[in-house]
Design goal:
By secondary structure, the chain is mostly helical. It is built from eight helices and four strands; from the N terminus they run ββαβαβαααααα. The chain has two domains: 37 residues; 164 residues, no CATH class. The chain is 64% helix and 9% strand. The strands form two sheets. It has a two-stranded antiparallel sheet. It is elongated and about 70 Å long.
């Protein structure tokens, strides 16, 4: 019998497939299923994260990411990489209010991404739990202290200054330099920025690098 036989009867066309074709289809299906199960269980090489460099502690965290961690890291990496939060600050060109807007939006999006992760996934995977903990601490210990100390004070001053007639003649980058504690604010902002850039690099290593099994 050939691999396929086409027969005609009064009910229409009947295709008869030989046992060889059936066996090949079954083998391919089994390989695909087994590969899918294997892929889900693959683990990548261990990654070390320094809390000191992120400004969230003094320990070194070791993570052996799985595919779920890669997906989480990729989403966070995209958010950090496409906002001012993960790029070097240049206050000769950047506007502090816009930076704060970007940081606030990153704060919001990160919380939403974390909330989407099922609790059972976090509880069952030590690497996922560590990755989520780092993300939360980057918000609470990396970003929040600066925002708490400076954001409201600067925005209040900046909005008041914008109403002055002299402000109309100044670029935003020049106007913001008049903030009473401008140098102190900038020093702290740049320190946070450096740690967030490192965080972006860590996320990129998890999400984009090809790890050996």
């Amino acid at each position: 019998m050939s691999e396929f036989t086409i027969l005609f009867n009064r009910h229409g066309i009947v295709v008869v497939i030989s046992w060889v074709v059936v066996a090949i289809i079954a083998l391919i299906s089994a390989v695909v299923i087994c590969w899918g199960l294997f892929a889900k269980r693959r683990r990548f090489s261990e990654l070390e994260i320094s809390e000191t460099e992120l400004g969230i502690g003094s320990q070194k965290i070791k993570i052996k990411p799985n595919y779920q961690d890669v997906q989480i890291a990729y989403k966070l990496w995209v958010e950090v990489s496409t906002r001012k939060i993960g790029l070097p600050i240049d206050l000769e060109h950047d506007v502090i209010v816009e930076i704060y807007n970007s940081w606030y939006e990153f704060f919001r999006v990160t919380r939403e991404l974390i909330k989407e992760i099922p609790a059972n996934k976090i509880r069952s995977s030590p690497s996922t739990e560590k990755l989520v903990r780092v993300a939360v601490e980057v918000l609470n210990e990396g970003l929040r202290p600066h925002l708490t100390s400076w954001q409201a004070r600067f925005r209040k001053w900046y909005e008041r200054e914008l109403k002055r007639e002299e402000a109309a003649e100044l670029a935003s980058q020049d106007l913001q330099k008049g903030f009473p504690k401008y140098e102190e604010l900038v020093a702290d902002m740049k320190a946070v920025n450096r740690r967030l850039i490192h965080y972006r690099e860590v996320l990129g290593r998890i999400a984009l690098e090809k790890h050996p099994i």
